[in-house]
From TrEMBL:
UniProt protein name: histidine kinase
EC code: 2.7.13.3
Molecular functions per Gene Ontology: kinase activity
DUF7134 domain location: 62-171
Annotated catalysed reactions: ATP + protein L-histidine = ADP + protein N-phospho-L-histidine
Ranges of Low complexity composition bias in the record: 330-341, 487-510
Tagged with keyword Oxidoreductase: no
Histidine kinase/HSP90-like ATPase domain sequence ranges: 383-481
Keyword line: ATP-binding, Kinase, Membrane, Nucleotide-binding, Phosphoprotein, Transferase, Transmembrane, Transmembrane helix, Two-component regulatory system
């Protein structure tokens, strides 16, 4: 019993007391541990409402005591009582009053209840045998064990009270009931109703009943105290876990945003480099070839506008980045020391064709007009690639899917979807699978959070969730910037071109496919 009920040690959080090494690990030590003798935790009722309920309980027992006395008097229980009737009522009602403070002063309440029990038992024992009084004695002992702040004092007081009660019971049986009565009623063995001496049987019966009565109150009270201690420890642990989870989430968000900040640096470096080269070319051919100089200036204008727009989106996302304390300098999957080029749309076929633990994968690319994917800016292509990468990782880890499809769509014509305008067309990546969520593999959700933050930097839209026909969908659509000089012209919108921009499942031909 001690192993199953021992509360965790305050000096060893989460470890049951019975598992903590002790110099004396005997039965007595385990019993003291079970009673929480060394615990520094105090069980205190939550608020004044608990004390008000105790007052109502005491009043309820007082009423029950008065009613039971009257019922007992009507049944003739008090016929041999010589004391005045008002004294009988007074003693019965007053003996229940300590229950009104049972949780505020549990040990004092126990001493008063059992003291009154002893006094009444010596003068008017008929009161003590009434059922409400018996229940009151059980509740008082149970409360003392379950709510005592000082566990050592609880053991002393409870042991003393139980010892006094058993002494009184022995004396009452030996003197008041009298051995002579039983001997006179059953003088010889032939007069015994059963196989056991009536006096011995009566003594054993009284002993067993009172052991169950007092022992049950003590065990039930201590089990409730241990359960309350466990609830308090679980509450403290859950608060700690929530704080740690929040801290880890913040760290992951900071790491992701620091990586986006590095992408901002790459965006700025790219556009400034292009502007510098085009400006130098324009300066050199300005006198000899004004047309080429004008083309270079148009390129400078396009690059500067695109760079400013991308920087505005990225800075808007990074504006709320908290101070990472320097820890974010090396965070993220792409280390600060890595000089490899960032992946883009051209890497999607290789990503899809890679080994995905037996998953049957298909890549589809839809362009309107042909070659429109080449006009997607590199930062936007990186975001679409990372979206497909995270979605495929989730399919492998958290899904029962057997097949998955990655579809890239780049459409250079105005569109409106869900109230959002795509004035110059859109670039979209969609990952579909045919599986169901795998139980026991739920992730932290940070990957999907990263996808949404990337979409927010480009002012796009995202759709993540289960499909009505089965499986799961991750779809991200980002608005394309205005086309620059020399861009692929937009084909007229016809039924055939509308079909080309339809979902990949409806396209029987005119697509690039890589099947893995």
């Amino acid at each position: 019993m001690a192993d199953a009920l021992s509360p965790p040690d305050a000096r060893h959080p989460g470890v049951p007391r019975s598992d903590v090494p002790r110099a004396d690990d005997g039965v007595v030590a385990r019993l003291l541990d079970w009673f929480g003798v060394d615990s520094d935790w105090e069980r205190v009722p939550a608020g004044r409402e608990a004390y008000r309920r105790d007052l109502l309980l005491g009043a309820g027992f007082a009423v029950l005591a008065a009613v039971s006395i009257e019922l007992g008097r009507s049944m003739g229980i008090f016929e041999e009582v010589t004391e005045p009737l008002w004294l009988v009522y007074l003693l019965g009602v007053v003996s229940t009053m300590p229950l009104a403070w049972r949780r505020r002063y549990p040990l004092v309440s126990l001493v008063l209840v059992y003291g009154s029990f002893l006094g009444i038992g010596l003068t008017i024992p008929a009161i003590t045998v009434l059922m409400p009084m018996q229940v009151m004695y059980f509740v008082a002992l149970f409360t003392a064990v379950a709510w005592a702040r000082d566990r050592r004092a609880m053991l002393v007081v409870v042991s003393a009270c139980v010892l006094v009660m058993f002494t009184w019971l022995i004396w009452m049986f030996a003197v008041q009931q009298g051995i002579e009565t039983l001997l006179e009623e059953f003088p010889t063995r032939a007069d015994w109703p059963g196989l056991i001496d009536p006096y011995l049987a009566n003594s054993a019966y009284q002993f067993i009943v009172n052991i169950a009565f007092f022992g049950g109150a003590v065990v039930a009270g201590q089990m409730q105290w241990n359960a309350a201690l466990r609830r308090r420890q679980l509450t403290d642990q859950s608060v700690t876990i929530e704080k740690q989870a929040a801290a880890l989430t913040d760290q992951a968000i900071v790491a992701e945003r620091v990586r986006i900040a590095r992408e901002l640096h790459d965006v700025v470096a790219h556009h400034v480099s292009v502007i510098g080269i085009q400006a130098a070319a324009a300066r050199r051919v300005l006198d000899r070839d004004p047309a080429r100089a004008a083309e270079a200036l148009l390129t400078i204008e396009r690059e500067s506008r695109e760079g400013v727009a991308q920087m505005r989106n990225l800075v808007g996302t990074l504006r709320s980045v908290p101070d990472a304390g320097g820890a974010g300098s090396s965070a993220g999957p792409d280390g600060a020391g890595s000089r490899a080029p960032e992946p883009g749309l051209a890497d999607l076929p290789a990503l899809t064709a890679a080994d995905h633990d037996g998953l049957d994968t298909t890549f589809r690319q839809v362009e309107e007009p042909a070659g429109a994917a080449a006009d997607v800016p590199d930062p936007m292509g990186l975001s679409l690639y990372r979206t497909a990468q995270e979605a495929m990782a989730n399919v492998r880890k958290h899904s029962t899917a057997r097949s998955a499809t990655v579809t890239l769509r780049v459409v250079r014509r105005p569109e409106t979807q869900a109230g959002q305008q795509f004035e110059h067309g859109f670039a979209e990546v969609e990952v579909l699978d045919d599986g169901r969520p795998r139980h026991g593999t739920s992730g932290s959700g940070l990957g999907l959070l990263g996808i949404r933050e990337r979409v927010a930097t480009h002012q796009g839209m995202v759709e993540i969730g289960p499909r009505a026909t089965g499986g799961y969908r991750v779809r991200v659509r980002l608005p394309l910037p205005a086309p620059g000089p020399g861009a692929v012209p937009v084909a007229p919108t016809t039924p055939s071109t509308r079909q080309a921009a339809a979902p990949a499942e409806a396209l029987p031909a005119a697509r690039t496919e890589v099947v893995g």
